[in-house]
Amino acid sequence: MKYVDEFRDPDKARALVHEIESLAQQLDITRQRPLQLMEFCGGHTHTIFRYGIEQMLPDSIELVHGPGCPVCVLPMGRVDDCVALAERPNVIFTTFGDAMRVPGSRKSLLQAKADGADIRMVYSPLDALDLANNNPDKEVIFFALGFETTMPSTALTVLQAEQDNINNFSLFCNHITTVPTIKAILDSPDMQIDGFLAPGHVSMVVGERPFDFVAETYEKPIVVTGFEPLDILQSIWMLLKQLKENRHDVENQYARIVPADGNAAGLDALSKVFELREFFEWRGLGSIDHSGVKMRDDYAQYDAERKFSVPNLKIADPKSCQCGEVLKGTIRPWECKVFGTQCTTETPMGALMVSTEGACAAYYNFGNLDELLNKRNQKSQLSAASA
Amino acid sequence: MCLGIPGEIVEITDSEKKLALVDVSGVKRPVNIACIVDDEHPVESCIGDWVLVHVGFAMSRIDANEAKITLDLLNELGEAQAEVEAMQASGQ
Asked: Which of A117, A301, B16, B17 keeps 20 to 30 A from A157, CA to CA?
């Protein structure tokens, strides 16, 4: 496929790994501890596991998998809200497929569908709008989910609904924002990240400048990164070069897709329809200021939260679930007490096991499960012995 | 949902609504191109453009020149390493 296969060339990957190894050896940090680089975006996590990039890297480089998977950070209460909306009479509830299996406190959307609710998976919010147009006697609700990447599409769909005078369409808006979340990670006391791979498709919308604070205020290098294996390796190499040269800049590895200023039409649409929420609740990370958006008053008639009553209850995650610690990078996915035993991709307990972009699902699908479970047992025996 | 897929705009289906048919690996699907249309790129001129498609919207025009620059750099790294390996292996 054009612009894809070229970025999967194994020879070029080997050359990059070679450069990365030699740079890693020259860094002062790696003499004391492994270098920690965070990929924020779940899409990057997926590529890293799918292509075994961690195994290619020297032991002196550790990748920390960030919270950038919108499905994974969705709190259970929000899933319950979806189910409540979907179970209303006369409603067609539409969602991206990723969200179907996320457990709620009562049930997932998939279970609600099996119980008779009219829930449909759509590829695009425009398909949901078509459903509304074709079913004028039904209320069609679209579960709007995702970071800035998907915000322009839902905003443009709402603007289209307005233009076409379609009044039986609304959004259940759960969009979240990247910058406050990266800031929350940088502010956490046990933070020890040496550099960031910035999310390529969020940057495609917002541009490079919103990440300036990472370089300027927190003095960490950050590279806007694409989603093919060579993109990731090249960005790691660029981060190492910055560290070697004692620089901390915002660099763009993904210039074939990401213009420095982002996408003007997309930004225009999203700022027309959405405004920042005071705070948004994240699974595992708690409440983060300004980390989500809601619909502006002008578009209240397309806002499912205002159009229908939404329970909006806070539900605690299951006690045995350690998604939060995994999201913050305090423990590795396989160190969670229920990983691979009670929590699997077939019967997920936590959201990180549900999405293909979740760190736990990635380890479960692409890692050696027996080896990981052995490692966990050894670790718990060690800590029991030392206690 | 966050991973896009590259495709080629093959037909404008609704100029006013900025809808086009995009060929993604042989599958044609209607895609909204509002985000890649501007004064420099009016709707009708977009046929033949390669774009990254996310959830039914073309979100970025793929910059062939930038893609080439990245690939050239990666090629150079590969060639330099092949050269070094040849030097090391020489005469052994």
From this structure: A117
| Interchain contact, A19 vs B81, CB within 8 Å | yes
- Same domain for B26 and B40, yes or no, is yes
- Kindly state whether residues B17 and B50 are assigned to the same domain: yes
Q: B54: which chain A residues are within 8 Å (Cβ-Cβ)?
A: 149-150, 153, 201
Q: Which two tokens stand for residue B59?
A: 């979100």
Enclosing domain of residue B73: 63-92
Contact A9 B74 (CB under 8 A): yes
**Is the pLDDT assigned to residue A236 strictly greater than 70?**
yes
The residue extents of the domains of chain A are 1-316, 323-386
Task: Tell me, yes or no, whether B22 and B40 share the same domain.
Answer: yes
Q: Cβ contacts of residue A383 below 8 Å, gap of 6+?
A: none
More confident residue, A58 or B89: A58
Q: What is the DSSP letter of A317?
A: P
**Three-state DSSP class for A124?**
coil
Confidence of residue A387 (pLDDT cuts 50, 70, 90): low
For chain B, helix, strand, coil in percent to 5 are: 35, 35, 30
- B78 and B46 belong to one structural domain: no
pLDDT of residue A354: 80
Lowest mean pLDDT among A66-75, A165-174, A192-201, B17-26: A66-75
Query: A144, A163, A133: which is closest to A93 by C-alpha?
Result: A144
| Tokens (6 digits) for A194 | 């040496």
% helix, strand, coil for chain A, step of 5: 45, 20, 35
B3·A46 Cβ contact <8 A? yes
- Number of compact structural domains in chain B: 2
Closest CB to B78 among A15, A96, A253: A15
A363 backbone dihedrals φ, ψ, rounded to 5° = -65, -40
For B50, phi then psi, to 5°, come to -95, 130
- B38 and B11 part of one domain: yes
8 Å CB contact of A2 and B17: no
Tell me the ipTM for this assembly. 0.89
CA angle A51/A55/A57 to nearest 5° reads 105
Which residues pair with residue A140 across a beta bridge? A92, A169
Distance (Å, rounded) from C-alpha B66 to C-alpha A385? 55
- pLDDT for the residue A327: 74
Residues B80, B37 share a domain? no
- Any idea which architecture A1-316 has in CATH? 3-Layer(aba) Sandwich (3.40)
Residue B70's pLDDT is: 85
Q: Does pLDDT of B92 surpass 60?
A: no
Looking at the fold, whether B18 and B31 belong to one and the same domain comes out as yes
Examine the domain organization and report whether B39 and B71 are in the same domain: no
Q: What is the CATH number of the domain that holds B33?
A: 2.30.30.140
Average pLDDT, chain B: 87
